[in-house]
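Entry 12.
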Amino acid sequence: MSAPYIVEAVRTAGGRRKGALAGTHPADLGAVVLDALVARSGIDPAAIEDVLMGCVTQGGEQAFAFGRNCVLASSLPDSVPSVTIDRQCGSSQQALQFAAQAVMSGTQDLVIAAGTESMTRVPMFSNMSVYEKAGIGAGPFAPSIQQRYGVSAFSQFTGAQMIADKHGFTREDMDRFALESHRKAAAAIEAGAFAAEIAAVQTEAGPFAQDEGVRFDASLEKLGSLDPLAEGGTITAGNASQMTDGASGVLVASEAAMKTHGLTPIARIHHFSVTAGDPVVMLEEPLRATRLALEKAGMSLADIDLFEVNEAFASIPMAWLKALGADPDRLNVNGGAIALGHPLGASGTKLMTTLVHALRARGGRYGLQTMCEGGGMANVTIVEAL
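Predicted 3D structure (tokens):
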């Protein structure tokens, strides 16, 4: 069985919703990452056997075999196939895990796992509104599901608030976590920590290569002035992830492919798994998923140098830290989605890109990434930097 290696890992900078990337078609956004992976690796693009593209809101400009459209918009030859994957926020992390499985099985040797999401041009939930506008059907949650779980719909916002309440996190606790995310991201930008991982996007205003959502002047006072998302709640836009446009991707190769094409790996995929639990609370599954992944991998938290836990809402990584007793100094060391943004289907390989580059820059060995996902699912991936 061949071990799966990461040869290159890149991402675009995150664009604010209706910001710098608003004029870029999602397929062109995805193409930037595909082209960057090919250019940086020096690989013959015709040698790529598949492109696995994560995307959550598959409608409008992100419809009709969206991954394939990203390939067609890129410099890759039209002999390269693609498939579009939806595991909600973990879509491109799942793409990476599928790519690893393909290499380990021996069925493929060179695969790109990527993700793209334009939350400006294809707004979140816009593909669900089709049912409402047409006045037909019950939407994605069948009456049988509603009856089974006692809800008319599953809400990530409700789930995040439930987790905050369960773990006793106050509004100030979460605002302080959010402030730290902005401070870490700002420090990373000023230190040039993202330079090696970002592929510039050419826009009408020129090259776009710096994350747009980071607030260099963030303060507790400003965060505290924001209204909660729900009356009486403690979740706000300030302690939740930002709606973002972006793309990311990694090139996964077998040992045979590396020898054939003269490639040098930057990381090895050591373990990957996915679990599912309560779809109502929904976002707490990374806690259980991490414990199970470490057990399967024969590792402990002490073996892991850096953690990337997606900051969908501050309450998620905070609950993860509390439940696992993890070291906060090893968590999201260059900031997280609260500051850098959460481009849904792109976030999985976005976090992996940042994780691999951060491990190599800091001389770390093992990194662990996990994502909370719609429907109560969670992916965990452990990598070894090389």
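Annotation: Residues 308 and 369 are 5 Å apart (CA to CA). DSSP finds 13 helices and twelve strands in the chain.
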